[in-house]
Amino acid sequence: MLFTERQLSKRKSIVFPQPERVKKVRKSMGAIKQVLGERKEDIMAAAALKQMDQADKNFADGEDDDDVGDLNAEESLQKT
Question: Does residue 3 lie in a domain region?
């Protein structure tokens, strides 16, 4: 909106009112982008933690998909 207003002012050869608004808006938008980025990182970290917790729970319950635990048990029996 500000850039449109600026362009209209240039076309009409009038002074752009309160030009410091552009700087304030850029600063505010930068702060908003930073906060949104931090939130996104927090959400992704929470999702990764939840996935790890679920994998740990499945492993503890003996629901490992690749049967690595069964192979390790068989190898231990063969060694003894």
Answer: no
**Distance (Å, whole) CA 55 – CA 61:** 10
Residue 72 lies in a domain: yes
Residue 9 belongs to some domain of the structure: no
Contacts of 16 (CB under 8 A, 6+ apart): 5, 6, 9, 10
pTM listed for this prediction: 0.55
Contact call for residues 22 and 6 (beta carbons, < 8 A): yes
Percent of the chain with pLDDT over 70: 78
Beta-carbon contacts of 59 under 8 Å, excluding residues fewer than 6 positions away, are: 69
